[in-house]
Amino acid sequence: MKRRFLMTGFLIAALALGGCSNLGSKTSDKNKSAQTQSSNQESSDETVIQDLGVKFKLPTSWEKIGVEGILAGENEMSFSFICPDDAKELAELSKKIDEKKVDNNGKKDKADEEKLMNLYMEKMKNIGSILRLNKNDAEKVLKSEEYSNYSKKDKVGELNNSVYYFVYNEKIDDSNLSDASKSEVKNIEKSINEFKNSIKPIDPSKIKSNDKGEKASEESINGTISFKSKTIQGKSIDSSIFKDSKLTMINIWGTSCMPCIDEMPELQKLYKDVKSKGVNIIGVVADTPDEDNEALAKSILDKKGVKFDNVIPDKDLHEWILKNVKGTPTTIFVDKDGKIVSTALVGTASKAEYNAKIDEVLKSIK
User: Fold this and answer.
1) What is the pLDDT of residues 221-241, one digit of tens each?
2) What is the Cα–Cα distance from 366 to 356, expressed in whole angstroms?
3) In 3-state terms, what secondary structure has residue 200?
4) Which of 15, 61, 79, 80 has the greatest count of CB atoms below 10 A from its CB?
């Protein structure tokens, strides 16, 4: 159950949008589902995590500050946050590193990356974790070094052969924080028991799935897309590709975004279907150029059977994404000149929903 923290310049830069954010992933309320693929809203108050077999309610003060959870392995959800002052500092440093990386064709400066990661780990404040443990191993795991820093290890329920715990500290480390941020931390501390008491195990097989799912939201994004770069496969590509089609659908995704990855097989089917309408589909990998993420993106695309072009953004396109895209996946539609001709879809959508949107946009540009 070793913790894994994944951070990209794209996600860190989003911190600058304001408010606290968990692990560098800031999303607006309307597209939060684009980043939390493993959770379903059972009601307006409760969040169900099917992968973990648990439901809980975030205190209002936590939601206001921006606390969210991230799955850290199969049996743990960790709750952490970064406050506004620190988020701004991280975003500024990340932007400088990203610009340098873009200029160097995705090659990383190890010293820069280490500096950013060290600052990130210093500023990220941990609240605690929900654990699902085997009843026979629970005592041993709780005594392990991994959880030795937690003073409180409270049992919150049992289900079948599993026992659930919330491990935390009543006092959150507020070192290196501003007075304003320390005040926010105190509000979080006051609500820890409220959160702990809301945690309930739930049998994943009994969770009612929403067959329709959550629809992607529509958001106004303007501008003209222009780039000269290469694809993940190494092919040269530029925005003149738009002239070959009546309409181009651009799916902006990231290698750490599971909803993005999950919808790829449907996007590939859509790509084949809409060719006859004079429509092309391309992807843009938001967390590139980055040599590690490029290799990961190639692996993802190969495994998902994606054949349409996926672009590594050049400096101009990279900056445009940072300024205009608040979460992944985000899908935009451009005409032959690269001009955005419709509202963007934020979040995943079904093949039918994408088709309907394409037909709507085609009618508007005739």
Assistant:
1) 999 999 999 999 999 999 999
2) 16
3) strand
4) 15
